[in-house]
Amino acid sequence: MMNEKKIGIINRCGPHGTASGRESLDLSLALSAYNESLSLFFIGDGVYQLVKGHSTNQILQKNYQPLFKMLEMYDVENIYVCSESLQQRHLDTKLLLIEVSFLETEDLQIKLAEQDQLLSF
Predict the structure, then answer these.
(1) What is the CATH number of the domain that holds 43?
(2) Tell me, what's the pLDDT at 108?
(3) Alpha carbon distances (Å) from 43 to 9, 13, 35, 96
(4) What average pLDDT does the segment 30-44 reach?
(5) Quick check: is 1 in a domain?
(6) Which residue range(s) make up the domain with 116?
(7) I want to staple 20 with a disulfide (CB 3.0 to 4.6 A). Which of 13, 28, 97, 115 is the partner?
(8) Domain count along the chain
């Protein structure tokens, strides 16, 4: 039996203005069916994707935020948020809509280095 590759998906873009956030989430849900060694990383403006209460009515984009709740159903448990990114944006951890693990920059770099493959959005 082959060992599963550790796949890390890095989210650096905000939730709106591009399709990156939605594409990343779709890929994460699809990969979770085939790979249990999946990790999601939210860095920089990517942390905004996890902030509760986005309103997309005025920008005419579909709100994909409710799909983040499906990560738990798909057994995606390795979800990491850069603590420094939250602090720089003055965001409280209570504002996030799903359970995550918070990592300082050094620990985040270690986790990223442990991945066999990284995909960045």
Answers:
(1) 3.40.1260.10
(2) 98
(3) 11, 8, 22, 14
(4) 94
(5) no
(6) 7-120
(7) 13
(8) 1
